[in-house]
Every structure is written in C-alpha cells, then in structure tokens.
Write a structure and sequence with these properties.
Layout: H1 4-26, H2 30-36, H3 63-86, H4 90-109, H5 117-148
InterPro entries: VanZ-like
Protein name: VanZ family protein
Keywords: Membrane, Transmembrane, Transmembrane helix
Length: 150
C-alpha cells in the first residue's frame, strides 16, 4: 500500500535521478564531468534542429558508439524502474519515460550537444526491456502461486 510519506520519498528519488540524467546528457563535456567532476553547461541559442532527424552520420559499428548507446538503454531502464515506484500502470511508466527521453534529446540541442531522435529510440529500448522483464516476472510469479495450490 502506498503512503503519502512513501510516495514523497519515491517521487524525490525520481526527481534526483531525472536531474542526474539531465546533467549527464546536457553537460558540454561528459568526460570532464565523469573524470574531473566539472559540470559545464554551454547554451546554444540557435540550435540545429535538422540534426535531430539525422539517422546516417553515426559510427554504428564502433565499439565506443555501441557502448554509449547501451548506456542510454541502461539509464532509461533504471528510469522506468524508478517510475514504477510511483506509477502503478505500465502504460504511464512507458509514456513518462519516453517523454523524458524526448525532452533530454531536444534539450541537448540547446546545450551544444547532439540531440537525436535515434537516441530517443535507444532510450525507449531500455524502457521496453524493463517493462518486458517486469511483465515476465509478474507472470512467472503468478504461475508459481497457482502451482503451489495444486
């Protein structure tokens, strides 16, 4: 059962995690943040919105690219996990997660980063993996409960 205090704590956890994701996605130099703990935001008042729809200029076979995109999926897997703390419906978890993915990618365009609709897709894969595992876990546990009565 959800209590008001529990809800507030879970919501605060989600907000902190969303803030962390925002900082990771919008900092000018991710390596400076990770290695030296330097957070730099550089505002771009005239972003290139056309780059958001670029699906071809990426090193798809590069191990570094693949690792980065797996990180996208993992971060949004955890975002969906934290949303499930607060929202009971998986459809709500999905919608909020994908909306935040879209928001962070568009925001990157304004912070001298490359925002991409393709990255929204990678983020969405992480959300779908979470929802799939959650449903499979629920079905598996339900079947175990049914089998214990026979």
């Amino acid at each position: 059962m959800f209590t008001k205090e529990g809800f507030t704590l879970r919501a605060a956890g989600i907000i902190v995690y969303m803030g962390l994701l925002f900082c990771l996605t919008c900092t000018e130099n991710l390596q400076a943040l990770l290695n030296n703990h330097i957070l730099i935001f550089k505002l771009d008042r005239e972003p290139d919105f056309g780059s958001f729809f670029n699906f071809t200029d990426y090193p798809f076979k590069s191990p570094a690219y693949i690792q980065q995109k797996l990180s996208h999926a993992l971060c949004f897997f955890w975002l969906a996990f934290t949303y499930k703390w607060v929202f009971r419906k998986l459809s709500t978890v999905f919608i909020y997660s994908v909306c935040f993915a879209f928001f962070t990618e568009v925001a990157q365009l304004f912070f001298s980063r490359t925002g991409s609709l393709l990255d929204v897709a990678y983020d969405t894969v992480g959300v779908i993996v979470f929802i799939t595992l959650f449903v499979v876990g629920r079905v598996t546990n339900s079947n175990k409960s049914l089998n214990s009565y026979t």
